[in-house]
Amino acid sequence: MRSPAQLLGPRNGVLKTGRRERGLHVALVISHLGQGGAERVICSLARRWAVGNEVSLLTVGSSAGDRYPLPPGVRRVALDLLRPSQNIAEGVLQASRRVVALRRALDLLRPDLVVSFLERTNILALLATTGTGVPVFVCERSDPRHDAIGRPWAALRRLLYPRAAGVVVQTERVGAWARAFCPRVHVIPNFVERPMQVAKPGIEHGPRRLLGLGRLAPEKGFDLLVRAFARVARSHPDWTLEILGEGKERAQLEALAGALGVRDRVSMPGSVVHPLPRLAAAHAFALPSRYEGFPNALLEAMACGLPVVAFDCQSGPREIIVHEQDGLLVRPGDIAEMALALDRLMGNAAERVRLGRNATEVTVRFAPETVLQRWSALLTGEELP
Question: Boundaries of CATH 3.40.50.2000 in the chain?
Protein backbone atom coordinates (compact mmCIF):
# COMPACT_ATOMS: atom_id res chain seq x y z
CA MET A 1 0.00 0.00 0.00
CA ARG A 2 1.25 3.47 -0.83
CA SER A 3 1.96 5.80 2.04
CA PRO A 4 -0.19 8.93 2.46
CA ALA A 5 2.74 11.08 1.36
CA GLN A 6 3.17 9.04 -1.84
CA LEU A 7 -0.53 9.23 -2.61
CA LEU A 8 -1.16 12.82 -1.68
CA GLY A 9 2.20 14.44 -2.27
CA PRO A 10 3.97 16.59 0.30
CA ARG A 11 2.45 19.89 -0.86
CA ASN A 12 -1.20 18.97 -1.35
CA GLY A 13 -2.10 20.71 1.90
CA VAL A 14 -4.92 18.37 2.97
CA LEU A 15 -7.31 20.12 5.31
CA LYS A 16 -5.71 23.48 4.63
CA THR A 17 -7.18 26.08 2.32
CA GLY A 18 -5.54 27.86 -0.56
CA ARG A 19 -3.03 25.23 -1.66
CA ARG A 20 -5.25 23.13 -3.93
CA GLU A 21 -8.22 24.19 -6.01
CA ARG A 22 -10.53 21.53 -4.60
CA GLY A 23 -8.63 20.34 -1.54
CA LEU A 24 -8.98 16.66 -0.78
CA HIS A 25 -11.90 14.33 -0.38
CA VAL A 26 -11.87 12.92 3.16
CA ALA A 27 -14.29 10.16 4.17
CA LEU A 28 -15.02 10.05 7.89
CA VAL A 29 -16.45 6.76 9.16
CA ILE A 30 -18.09 6.00 12.51
CA SER A 31 -20.77 3.67 13.86
CA HIS A 32 -23.44 6.35 14.40
CA LEU A 33 -23.91 10.02 15.28
CA GLY A 34 -25.83 9.51 18.49
CA GLN A 35 -24.83 10.95 21.84
CA GLY A 36 -21.14 10.52 22.66
CA GLY A 37 -17.73 12.14 22.78
CA ALA A 38 -16.33 10.44 19.67
CA GLU A 39 -19.43 11.43 17.72
CA ARG A 40 -19.04 15.07 18.75
CA VAL A 41 -15.36 15.07 17.82
CA ILE A 42 -15.87 13.55 14.37
CA CYS A 43 -18.58 16.13 13.60
CA SER A 44 -16.26 18.91 14.76
CA LEU A 45 -13.55 17.61 12.43
CA ALA A 46 -16.04 17.40 9.57
CA ARG A 47 -17.08 21.00 10.14
CA ARG A 48 -13.50 22.24 10.25
CA TRP A 49 -12.24 20.18 7.32
CA ALA A 50 -15.19 21.05 5.08
CA VAL A 51 -13.62 24.49 4.58
CA GLY A 52 -11.56 24.05 1.41
CA ASN A 53 -11.99 20.27 1.19
CA GLU A 54 -14.64 17.74 0.24
CA VAL A 55 -15.89 15.80 3.25
CA SER A 56 -18.17 12.77 3.43
CA LEU A 57 -19.36 11.32 6.72
CA LEU A 58 -20.47 7.69 6.69
CA THR A 59 -22.16 5.80 9.50
CA VAL A 60 -22.83 2.10 9.79
CA GLY A 61 -26.15 2.96 11.41
CA SER A 62 -29.00 5.13 10.20
CA SER A 63 -29.25 8.89 10.38
CA ALA A 64 -32.46 8.77 12.43
CA GLY A 65 -30.61 9.12 15.73
CA ASP A 66 -28.20 11.88 14.68
CA ARG A 67 -27.59 14.26 17.57
CA TYR A 68 -24.99 16.61 16.10
CA PRO A 69 -25.55 18.94 13.13
CA LEU A 70 -23.30 18.90 10.09
CA PRO A 71 -22.65 21.87 7.80
CA PRO A 72 -24.44 21.80 4.43
CA GLY A 73 -21.24 21.02 2.54
CA VAL A 74 -20.67 17.67 4.25
CA ARG A 75 -22.11 14.67 2.39
CA ARG A 76 -23.99 12.40 4.83
CA VAL A 77 -24.16 8.67 4.03
CA ALA A 78 -25.98 6.25 6.36
CA LEU A 79 -25.76 2.51 5.69
CA ASP A 80 -28.53 1.65 8.19
CA LEU A 81 -26.94 -1.68 9.12
CA LEU A 82 -26.51 -1.24 12.87
CA ARG A 83 -28.71 -4.02 14.23
CA PRO A 84 -27.95 -6.30 17.19
CA SER A 85 -26.91 -9.90 16.53
CA GLN A 86 -28.50 -12.82 18.35
CA ASN A 87 -25.56 -15.21 18.07
CA ILE A 88 -22.03 -15.55 16.67
CA ALA A 89 -23.15 -16.77 13.25
CA GLU A 90 -25.52 -13.86 12.84
CA GLY A 91 -22.80 -11.50 14.07
CA VAL A 92 -20.40 -12.72 11.40
CA LEU A 93 -23.08 -12.33 8.74
CA GLN A 94 -23.95 -8.81 9.92
CA ALA A 95 -20.28 -7.79 9.93
CA SER A 96 -19.82 -9.17 6.41
CA ARG A 97 -22.80 -7.17 5.15
CA ARG A 98 -21.40 -4.03 6.72
CA VAL A 99 -18.01 -4.54 5.09
CA VAL A 100 -19.61 -5.05 1.67
CA ALA A 101 -21.90 -2.03 2.05
CA LEU A 102 -19.06 0.16 3.26
CA ARG A 103 -16.86 -0.94 0.36
CA ARG A 104 -19.60 -0.10 -2.13
CA ALA A 105 -20.17 3.30 -0.58
CA LEU A 106 -16.47 4.15 -0.61
CA ASP A 107 -16.15 2.93 -4.20
CA LEU A 108 -18.89 5.39 -5.17
CA LEU A 109 -17.44 8.26 -3.14
CA ARG A 110 -13.82 7.66 -4.21
CA PRO A 111 -12.23 9.53 -1.29
CA ASP A 112 -8.54 10.38 -1.19
CA LEU A 113 -8.32 8.98 2.33
CA VAL A 114 -10.45 7.53 5.11
CA VAL A 115 -10.44 8.51 8.80
CA SER A 116 -12.31 5.99 10.95
CA PHE A 117 -13.37 6.25 14.60
CA LEU A 118 -13.91 3.49 17.18
CA GLU A 119 -12.54 -0.03 17.29
CA ARG A 120 -15.08 -2.20 15.49
CA THR A 121 -15.77 0.43 12.84
CA ASN A 122 -12.02 0.76 12.32
CA ILE A 123 -11.82 -2.95 11.60
CA LEU A 124 -14.72 -2.74 9.15
CA ALA A 125 -13.07 0.19 7.36
CA LEU A 126 -9.75 -1.64 7.03
CA LEU A 127 -11.49 -4.73 5.65
CA ALA A 128 -13.62 -2.65 3.28
CA THR A 129 -10.61 -0.88 1.76
CA THR A 130 -8.36 -3.93 1.40
CA GLY A 131 -6.64 -3.81 -1.96
CA THR A 132 -7.94 -0.35 -2.90
CA GLY A 133 -4.79 1.60 -2.04
CA VAL A 134 -6.85 4.20 -0.16
CA PRO A 135 -5.03 5.23 3.04
CA VAL A 136 -7.04 4.51 6.19
CA PHE A 137 -6.29 6.23 9.49
CA VAL A 138 -7.93 4.48 12.45
CA CYS A 139 -8.63 6.27 15.72
CA GLU A 140 -8.87 4.82 19.21
CA ARG A 141 -11.03 7.05 21.38
CA SER A 142 -10.89 5.32 24.75
CA ASP A 143 -8.35 3.21 26.65
CA PRO A 144 -8.24 -0.17 24.87
CA ARG A 145 -6.43 -1.72 27.83
CA HIS A 146 -9.74 -1.53 29.72
CA ASP A 147 -12.39 -1.22 27.00
CA ALA A 148 -13.17 -4.86 26.18
CA ILE A 149 -14.46 -5.41 22.64
CA GLY A 150 -14.55 -9.22 22.66
CA ARG A 151 -11.87 -11.71 21.68
CA PRO A 152 -12.69 -12.01 17.96
CA TRP A 153 -12.67 -8.23 17.49
CA ALA A 154 -9.53 -7.85 19.58
CA ALA A 155 -7.78 -10.46 17.43
CA LEU A 156 -8.85 -8.70 14.25
CA ARG A 157 -7.57 -5.41 15.64
CA ARG A 158 -4.14 -6.94 16.26
CA LEU A 159 -4.15 -8.37 12.74
CA LEU A 160 -5.45 -5.35 10.82
CA TYR A 161 -4.22 -2.23 12.63
CA PRO A 162 -0.63 -2.70 11.38
CA ARG A 163 -2.02 -2.29 7.84
CA ALA A 164 -3.44 1.16 8.59
CA ALA A 165 -1.75 4.25 7.21
CA GLY A 166 -1.76 5.47 10.80
CA VAL A 167 -3.18 4.61 14.19
CA VAL A 168 -4.26 7.73 16.08
CA VAL A 169 -4.48 7.63 19.87
CA GLN A 170 -5.03 10.43 22.33
CA THR A 171 -2.36 9.89 24.99
CA GLU A 172 1.22 8.66 25.17
CA ARG A 173 0.26 5.84 27.52
CA VAL A 174 -2.21 4.41 25.03
CA GLY A 175 0.41 5.09 22.35
CA ALA A 176 2.79 2.73 24.15
CA TRP A 177 0.13 0.01 24.02
CA ALA A 178 -0.41 0.53 20.28
CA ARG A 179 3.29 0.63 19.41
CA ALA A 180 3.68 -2.91 20.70
CA PHE A 181 2.04 -4.16 17.50
CA CYS A 182 1.56 -1.15 15.18
CA PRO A 183 4.38 0.55 13.24
CA ARG A 184 2.69 3.94 12.65
CA VAL A 185 1.21 5.36 15.85
CA HIS A 186 0.44 9.04 16.35
CA VAL A 187 -0.72 10.86 19.49
CA ILE A 188 -3.26 13.61 18.79
CA PRO A 189 -5.45 14.88 21.64
CA ASN A 190 -8.91 16.37 21.36
CA PHE A 191 -9.23 20.12 20.96
CA VAL A 192 -11.45 22.46 22.91
CA GLU A 193 -12.85 25.77 21.76
CA ARG A 194 -12.96 28.90 23.89
CA PRO A 195 -16.55 29.04 25.19
CA MET A 196 -18.86 32.02 24.89
CA GLN A 197 -20.06 31.47 28.46
CA VAL A 198 -17.93 31.06 31.56
CA ALA A 199 -18.74 29.79 35.02
CA LYS A 200 -18.73 31.81 38.23
CA PRO A 201 -17.54 29.23 40.74
CA GLY A 202 -16.73 31.74 43.52
CA ILE A 203 -20.28 32.19 44.81
CA GLU A 204 -20.16 31.65 48.57
CA HIS A 205 -23.83 31.53 49.52
CA GLY A 206 -27.03 30.10 48.11
CA PRO A 207 -27.60 27.10 45.84
CA ARG A 208 -24.47 25.67 44.29
CA ARG A 209 -24.03 22.75 41.94
CA LEU A 210 -21.45 20.01 41.49
CA LEU A 211 -21.69 18.72 37.92
CA GLY A 212 -20.86 15.38 36.30
CA LEU A 213 -21.21 14.70 32.58
CA GLY A 214 -21.11 11.45 30.62
CA ARG A 215 -22.87 8.19 29.80
CA LEU A 216 -24.53 6.45 32.72
CA ALA A 217 -22.28 3.44 32.25
CA PRO A 218 -19.94 1.52 34.61
CA GLU A 219 -16.74 2.93 33.13
CA LYS A 220 -17.84 6.49 33.89
CA GLY A 221 -17.88 5.75 37.63
CA PHE A 222 -20.89 7.82 38.63
CA ASP A 223 -21.66 5.33 41.37
CA LEU A 224 -18.33 6.31 42.94
CA LEU A 225 -19.22 10.00 42.62
CA VAL A 226 -22.62 9.53 44.27
CA ARG A 227 -20.95 7.70 47.16
CA ALA A 228 -18.31 10.43 47.54
CA PHE A 229 -20.92 13.19 47.41
CA ALA A 230 -23.04 11.42 50.02
CA ARG A 231 -20.10 11.48 52.43
CA VAL A 232 -19.85 15.28 52.36
CA ALA A 233 -23.42 16.33 51.51
CA ARG A 234 -24.42 16.93 55.13
CA SER A 235 -21.52 19.35 55.61
CA HIS A 236 -22.57 21.34 52.53
CA PRO A 237 -26.38 21.64 52.60
CA ASP A 238 -26.50 24.27 49.83
CA TRP A 239 -24.83 21.95 47.30
CA THR A 240 -26.51 19.52 44.90
CA LEU A 241 -25.07 17.01 42.47
CA GLU A 242 -26.26 17.02 38.85
CA ILE A 243 -25.23 14.26 36.45
CA LEU A 244 -25.90 14.97 32.77
CA GLY A 245 -26.13 11.90 30.56
CA GLU A 246 -28.16 8.81 29.85
CA GLY A 247 -27.46 5.10 30.00
CA LYS A 248 -28.21 1.68 31.38
CA GLU A 249 -27.14 2.54 34.95
CA ARG A 250 -29.81 5.18 35.57
CA ALA A 251 -31.99 2.96 37.77
CA GLN A 252 -29.02 1.70 39.80
CA LEU A 253 -27.73 5.23 40.37
CA GLU A 254 -31.14 6.50 41.46
CA ALA A 255 -31.46 3.57 43.84
CA LEU A 256 -27.97 4.19 45.21
CA ALA A 257 -28.69 7.87 45.85
CA GLY A 258 -31.85 6.85 47.68
CA ALA A 259 -30.07 4.26 49.79
CA LEU A 260 -27.42 6.81 50.78
CA GLY A 261 -30.02 9.39 51.76
CA VAL A 262 -29.21 11.95 49.05
CA ARG A 263 -31.90 11.21 46.48
CA ASP A 264 -33.32 14.72 46.85
CA ARG A 265 -29.84 16.19 46.34
CA VAL A 266 -28.91 14.23 43.20
CA SER A 267 -30.55 14.99 39.83
CA MET A 268 -30.09 13.20 36.52
CA PRO A 269 -31.97 15.21 33.90
CA GLY A 270 -30.72 13.15 30.94
CA SER A 271 -28.38 13.88 28.07
CA VAL A 272 -27.94 17.27 26.45
CA VAL A 273 -26.55 18.04 23.01
CA HIS A 274 -25.13 21.38 24.10
CA PRO A 275 -23.82 21.13 27.69
CA LEU A 276 -22.18 24.57 27.76
CA PRO A 277 -25.05 26.40 29.51
CA ARG A 278 -25.14 23.73 32.24
CA LEU A 279 -21.37 23.91 32.68
CA ALA A 280 -21.46 27.69 32.91
CA ALA A 281 -24.18 27.49 35.57
CA ALA A 282 -22.24 25.01 37.74
CA HIS A 283 -19.72 25.74 40.50
CA ALA A 284 -17.48 22.65 40.39
CA PHE A 285 -17.01 19.60 38.17
CA ALA A 286 -16.10 15.97 38.89
CA LEU A 287 -14.87 13.25 36.54
CA PRO A 288 -15.08 9.92 38.39
CA SER A 289 -14.25 7.64 35.44
CA ARG A 290 -12.70 4.23 35.98
CA TYR A 291 -10.99 4.65 32.61
CA GLU A 292 -10.96 7.27 29.88
CA GLY A 293 -9.61 8.23 26.49
CA PHE A 294 -9.20 12.00 26.42
CA PRO A 295 -12.37 13.27 28.07
CA ASN A 296 -14.13 16.08 26.25
CA ALA A 297 -16.31 16.71 29.30
CA LEU A 298 -13.25 17.51 31.40
CA LEU A 299 -11.79 19.78 28.71
CA GLU A 300 -15.03 21.69 28.34
CA ALA A 301 -15.52 22.08 32.09
CA MET A 302 -12.02 23.51 32.46
CA ALA A 303 -12.48 25.77 29.42
CA CYS A 304 -15.55 27.19 31.17
CA GLY A 305 -13.46 28.05 34.21
CA LEU A 306 -14.77 25.36 36.53
CA PRO A 307 -12.61 23.87 39.29
CA VAL A 308 -12.33 20.16 38.57
CA VAL A 309 -11.49 16.95 40.38
CA ALA A 310 -10.88 13.64 38.59
CA PHE A 311 -9.72 10.14 39.32
CA ASP A 312 -6.16 9.74 38.04
CA CYS A 313 -7.04 6.77 35.83
CA GLN A 314 -4.45 5.32 33.47
CA SER A 315 -5.16 7.57 30.54
CA GLY A 316 -6.72 10.99 30.05
CA PRO A 317 -7.08 13.21 33.13
CA ARG A 318 -3.36 13.42 33.91
CA GLU A 319 -2.68 14.65 30.36
CA ILE A 320 -5.15 17.49 30.92
CA ILE A 321 -4.99 18.43 34.61
CA VAL A 322 -1.87 19.86 36.23
CA HIS A 323 -2.46 18.67 39.78
CA GLU A 324 -2.96 21.45 42.34
CA GLN A 325 -2.49 24.09 39.64
CA ASP A 326 -5.62 23.87 37.50
CA GLY A 327 -7.42 20.91 39.05
CA LEU A 328 -7.19 18.02 41.48
CA LEU A 329 -6.27 14.41 40.76
CA VAL A 330 -7.14 11.68 43.23
CA ARG A 331 -6.20 8.02 43.38
CA PRO A 332 -8.27 5.90 40.98
CA GLY A 333 -11.41 4.57 42.58
CA ASP A 334 -10.63 6.00 46.01
CA ILE A 335 -14.02 7.22 47.24
CA ALA A 336 -12.63 8.61 50.49
CA GLU A 337 -10.03 10.69 48.67
CA MET A 338 -12.62 11.90 46.17
CA ALA A 339 -14.85 12.94 49.07
CA LEU A 340 -11.98 14.91 50.63
CA ALA A 341 -11.32 16.69 47.33
CA LEU A 342 -15.02 17.51 46.95
CA ASP A 343 -15.15 18.80 50.51
CA ARG A 344 -12.17 21.04 49.76
CA LEU A 345 -13.79 22.55 46.67
CA MET A 346 -17.28 22.85 48.08
CA GLY A 347 -16.04 24.53 51.24
CA ASN A 348 -13.57 27.03 49.78
CA ALA A 349 -14.77 29.64 47.28
CA ALA A 350 -11.29 31.16 46.88
CA GLU A 351 -9.87 27.76 45.96
CA ARG A 352 -12.61 27.24 43.39
CA VAL A 353 -11.83 30.62 41.85
CA ARG A 354 -8.07 29.94 41.75
CA LEU A 355 -8.35 26.52 40.15
CA GLY A 356 -11.10 27.64 37.77
CA ARG A 357 -9.11 30.64 36.57
CA ASN A 358 -6.05 28.47 35.88
CA ALA A 359 -8.16 25.77 34.23
CA THR A 360 -9.06 28.01 31.27
CA GLU A 361 -5.47 27.62 30.03
CA VAL A 362 -6.60 24.36 28.38
CA THR A 363 -8.01 26.53 25.59
CA VAL A 364 -4.41 27.46 24.77
CA ARG A 365 -2.79 24.03 25.20
CA PHE A 366 -5.51 22.27 23.24
CA ALA A 367 -6.56 25.04 20.88
CA PRO A 368 -8.25 23.87 17.66
CA GLU A 369 -5.53 25.41 15.47
CA THR A 370 -2.78 23.54 17.32
CA VAL A 371 -4.51 20.16 17.24
CA LEU A 372 -5.72 20.50 13.64
CA GLN A 373 -2.20 21.34 12.54
CA ARG A 374 -1.10 17.97 13.90
CA TRP A 375 -3.90 16.24 12.01
CA SER A 376 -2.95 18.06 8.83
CA ALA A 377 0.71 17.10 9.19
CA LEU A 378 -0.24 13.47 9.72
CA LEU A 379 -2.61 13.19 6.79
CA THR A 380 -0.28 14.91 4.33
CA GLY A 381 2.99 13.42 5.50
CA GLU A 382 4.33 16.94 6.07
CA GLU A 383 6.64 17.87 8.92
CA LEU A 384 5.38 20.18 11.63
CA PRO A 385 7.22 23.53 11.73
Answer: 4-191+367-380, 208-365
* Mean per-residue pLDDT, 47-59: 94
In the CATH scheme, what is the homologous superfamily, with its name and number, of domain 208-365? Glycogen Phosphorylase B; (3.40.50.2000)
Phi and psi torsions of 135, nearest 5°: -65, 135
**pLDDT category, 142, cuts 50, 70, 90?**
confident
Amino acid at 222: F
Nearest of 123, 67, 76, 133 to residue 98 by alpha carbon: 123
pTM: 0.88
Q: What is the pLDDT of residue 147?
A: 78
| 89, amino acid identity | A
In 3D space, the residue among 36, 76, 134 whose CA is nearest the CA of residue 125 turns out to be: 134
Cα Dmax for the chain: 65
Q: CA distances (Å), 177 to each of 143, 172, 182, 254, 295, in order?
A: 9, 9, 9, 36, 19
Q: Are 221 and 378 in contact (CB under 8 A)?
A: no
**Packing angle, helices 222-232 and 335-346, rounded to 10:** 60
Neighbours of 155 (CB within 10 A): 11
